[in-house]
Amino acid sequence: MHIVWDWNGTLFDDLAIVVDAVNASLAHEGAGPIDADGYRAGYRRPVHLFYEAILGEPIGSERMAVIDRNFHGVYHASLDRAGLTADARGAIRLVRELGATQSILSMWWHDRLVPAVRAFGLDEFMLAVDGHRGSPGETKEQHLVRHLEQLERLYPGIQDDGVVAIGDITDDASAARAAGVDCVLYDGGSQPLKMLAAEGTPVAFTLVEAVGLAGAGARP
Prior knowledge:
Elements: E1 2-5, E2 12-13, H1 15-28, H2 36-42, H3 47-55, H4 61-77, E3 83-84, H5 88-97, E4 101-109, H6 110-119, E5 129-132, H7 141-154, E6 163-167, H8 170-179, E7 182-186, H9 193-197, E8 203-204, H10 207-215
Parallel strand pairs: 1-4, 1-6, 4-5, 6-7, 7-8
Antiparallel strand pairs: 2-3
């Protein structure tokens, strides 16, 4: 078995600083703030759909680029206030104990992701750490397909015993379906349980539980 971990909202518990960064970008657009519950209830990808729902109007690519820049300015300045999810290290060690392999695939910028994973000492557990290199607002589907193709080139046969993606939003489930792999969703990140459960995908309340569900066969 191979586990593909999501980073933001899954292994990395950044909800509080994400909400702060969203509110900074909304303030620049003349909109009022939202709280964590409001963020989780409304969050979706592509990200422009999330902002369009809040602002009540279409958002073009240039405007989205400004929103994205304002968001990341606050988010990156606040990283020292966030850390790993409580049982992230335990879950990663459990994957190794099960004799499985693992990697990280994130829509966060690659040049930010790699040093962050290294700083937490998690890179030694991963076959690959793959961040986003495209344009803002893209979905994860093609990113996951490319990630798996790269792993197969580097480690032929790695998918033979099954691949399970573990993430915190419905986009992770959609990406897994598109790539033809299983998925477990974690209720603790960017979307609430009701939205996750509607995917028909197993939902875990801790990351250790997510690994257990993955090992037991993630399909409901």
